[in-house]
Amino acid sequence: MTFLHALLLGIIQGLTEFIPVSSTAHILVVSEILGIPADDKVFSFSVIIQLGTVVAMLAFFWKDIWHIVTAFLLGIKHRDPFESLNARLGWLILVASIPA
């Protein structure tokens, strides 16, 4: 995989990650169109750029995440788990994360 291929796949990842389509599928389709062999390197690259997306989201929303986590923990400590909006949001995120 060349630098240009990696750049193009990274752009596709960035454009399709936050819309309700599979960014992974787009990466695989474009890799096939460009003739990039679907080997471990493409899979590893896909995993790495998706981790980059997670890191970018954490970096962008770190203050919000911090407020939610601290309110959640303080709500547990004070035995009033729904004492603030952020504490309630923490519980809702926790419940929504439980697999069906």
Which key terms come to mind for this protein?
5 helices, 2 domains, single chain, 100 residues, mainly alpha
Query: What share of residues is helical?
Result: over 70%
Computed CA radius of gyration, to the nearest angstrom: 19 Å
Q: List segments where confidence is low: pLDDT < 50 over at least 5 consecutive residues.
A: none
Cα separation of the termini: 38 Å
Report the average pLDDT across residues: 87
Biggest sheet, in brief? none
Shape: elongated
| Beta-strand residue fraction | under 5%
> In terms of structural class, how would the helical and strand content be classed?
mainly alpha
| Contiguous helical run count | 5
Order of helices and strands: HHHHH
Record field, number of beta strands: 0
The number of distinct structural domains comes to 2
Protein described:
The chain is an all-alpha fold and 100 residues long. It folds into 2 domains: 57 residues, no CATH class; 35 residues, no CATH class. It has 5 helices and no strands. The radius of gyration is 19 Å and the shape is elongated. The termini are far apart. The model has no long low-confidence stretch (mean pLDDT 87).
Q: In a few lines, what is going on in this structure?
A:
The chain folds into two domains: 3-59, no CATH class; 62-96, no CATH class. The protein is 75% helix and 0% strand. It is elongated, with a radius of gyration of 19 Å.
